Amino acid sequence: MRKNILLVKQALGNLTMLTTGDFRIVLNKTRQTDFVYMDPPYQGVCKNRDNRYVKSVDFPEFVEELELLNIRHIPFIVSYDGRTGDTVYGEKLPESLGLFHTEILVGRSTQATLLGRNHETYESLYLSPATIKKLGNVPEILRDGVQTTLTLFD
Length: 154
Known about the structure:
Elements: H1 2-12, H2 23-28, E1 36-38, H3 59-71, E2 76-84, E3 87-89, E4 100-108, H4 110-114, E5 120-127, H5 129-135, H6 140-143
Parallel strand pairs: 1-2
Antiparallel strand pairs: 2-3, 2-5, 4-5
């Protein structure tokens, strides 16, 4: 994982800052000229269920931080909840945040395949009002519901 992260950092050059630590501290340092992408551990797959994640992000605390980003007009995108087959992972982010929501088909579930099932996995993607303003509108590719490919910045 470290190698992949560093390769992405190298590809993006000086446009990217990699940080570790409490997400609240990192978000508090952001400016309106920044762009924040967040992919926190999904609710329901953390703690004892999946040892790839140290711990889950507290939902009310996370929502509060997103509200603060909105108040400060910080552009952000969040990939947060998802579903595979009939299983839904996590609570959707509240409508009160004013985020644009869509789902992206990310492919066949590896876990379901290992269990002899054939389920597709969908991840939710949320765009903040400041992101939409920066883009000029919601990209057309995101307006039609479930997506199979995604390119925001051509």
